[in-house]
Amino acid sequence: MVKTVIQQKEVEMKRKGLFLVLLLLFIGIATTPVSAADLTKFKGQKITVTCWSGPYTEDFKKAYVEPFMKASGAVVVVSPGWAEFMAKIKASPEDKPPYDVFMADGWNYIAAMNINRLQPIRKENIPNAADIYPELLKREAWVKGYGVPFDGGIYLPIYVPDKIKFTPTSWKDLTRAEVSGKLSLDQTFYYGLYASAFISDKEPGVQELYSKEGMDEVFRVSAELAPHVKKFYKGGAELLQLIKTGEVNMGTYYSGGTFSEMNKGTNVKMVFPDEGAVAWIGYMTVMKGAANRDLAEAFINWCIDPENQTRFANINGGWVSNQKAEIAPALVGIVPSSNEEFTKISFFDWDLLNEQWGELEERWKKEVLSKSK
């Protein structure tokens, strides 16, 4: 009798133990990130994804595309570009989009949404989004469910350290006498407006851009600065060439392009100003009519994995969205790598700019560019 009771208890213990093992196994499976799952189910399948042309393309391929294809056996066709993306999307039938995954900055995201060409992201297929900076998850694209915050670039002052006698810390340093005639700024109006809004003390951050009086002040600051500009450059390559030849020793540019030049040995540095900085944000989206939605979302999840974003951040110089990713030591204090640092970023407000685009662009030419040397 005693033996039978003991045997029954042993059986019960074994059952409980087996149940516990199965429970833990189930929990482990349920919480395993897609990026760690068996991606080989996508072997032989294909998607087309966009990315920015130029050096970004090779960085994107090395950090994300090539490792993903190796892990999954899928084929990822990369379609680099800039302004031509929306033209190709508009020219294509809704059920046959030119891309499956559309990497859209704020302007392209709004343009694609306005013509109803994006489909909702199934957030359950993007578990790595749990590690995206909370400040970025407040963005409309993620809240509405059509875009996953992915990466971006910081637009800030850059300088040649041994050519000026001070260490820049502020946007106001662009107005100092020491750099007059040795300064180069982007000729595109919205870059100049954001820079001048930071220089102005009328409102915090870039709030000047949201009132008529504030916008007038921004144009006044820009017009006063224009005569001190050696050249309003048309592209990053032109600015960097001016720096290399010694024609300018300070300007404004993106962190990614500057970091790339630093890695090539160019004597240039950048500073995250006391007032904050302006940035563009890129979203990973899925086109309506995409042939392989599952593979598209698996690729997006892969792209925001911290290991993959660390690999990208250390060769590109832009910021990445996963708070577990690690940036290059040279970018610490320049590229945001904490949620608090992201609160100091002003993102380009494309709704604001689009509403007044023609007016602002024409005013910029008349009141600012016309006063340059």
Can you walk me through this structure?
The longest helix has 29 residues, at 2-30. It is built from 15 helices and 12 strands. It has helices at residues 2-30, 55-72, 84-91, 106-114, 134-137, 140-144, 189-199, 212-225, 236-244, 255-263, 293-303, 306-316, 339-342, 350-355, 357-367, and strands at residues 46-52, 75-81, 101-105, 118-119, 148-159, 183-186, 229-233, 250-254, 269-270, 277-287, 319-320, 345-347. Strands 3, 4, 5, 6, 7, 8, 9, 10, 11 and 12 form a 10-stranded mixed sheet that branches. The protein has 2 domains: 40-152 and 280-337, 3-Layer(aba) Sandwich (D-Maltodextrin-Binding Protein, domain 2); 154-279 and 350-371, 3-Layer(aba) Sandwich (D-Maltodextrin-Binding Protein, domain 2), CATH 3.40.190. It is globular and about 60 Å long. 43% of the residues lie in helices and 17% in strands. The protein is an alpha/beta fold and 373 residues long. Helix 2 (55-72) links the parallel strand 1 and strand 2.
Helical segment count: 15
Cα distance, first to last residue? 105 Å
Strand content: 15-25%
Please give the number of β-strands: 12
As a whole number of angstroms, the C-alpha radius of gyration is 25 Å
Q: Structural class of the secondary elements? A: alpha/beta
